[in-house]
Amino acid sequence: MKSSKSKIIYLFIYFQFQLLCGQNIQTDTLKVFGNCEMCKARIERAVFKKGVIAANWSPKSKLLIVKYKREKISLEDIKKSILNAGHDLENELAPDSIYQKLHSCCKYRDEN
């Protein structure tokens, strides 16, 4: 009888641990335009809000991999933060007024 109770307690603790460790963790990849290490720092700093666990943007591939807790922050909020930092997404442009304030080496739009 005692071993049955021990097994039940063990299973309960195990499943609680599993729920806490990975239940609402989301990983997404976004195409974010930029050029250099200054862009990298700005983009990663922009997305680090409450709920974001990790963010890594590659200047070469233009891909941002972001890991976050869905109950704390939404993907839409992350995208808004990137746009408000002056960086375009694959299907959305940052406001011109913000983009124009970027350092000259960070400007990536073809102005022709």
Describe this structure in words.
With 112 residues, the chain is an alpha+beta fold. Helices cover 41% and strands 18% of the residues. The protein has a single domain (24-106), classed as 2-Layer Sandwich (Alpha-Beta Plaits). The chain is built from four helices and three strands, in the order H-E-H-E-E-H-H. A hairpin with a 5-residue loop joins strand 2 (52-57) and strand 3 (63-69). The model has no long low-confidence stretch (mean pLDDT 88).
Task: Summarize this entry quickly.
With 112 residues, this protein is an alpha+beta fold.
Elements, N to C (H/E) = HEHEEHH
Question: Count of helices?
Answer: 4
* N-end to C-end Cα span: 79 Å
Number of strands: 3
Average pLDDT for all residues: 88
Radius of gyration: 20 Å
Fraction in beta strands: 15-25%
What are the key terms here?
112 residues, three-stranded antiparallel β-sheet, Alpha-Beta Plaits, 4 helices, 3 strands, alpha+beta
Strand-helix topology:
Blueprint: H1 2-22, E1 25-31, H2 37-47, E2 52-57, E3 63-69, H3 75-84, H4 96-99
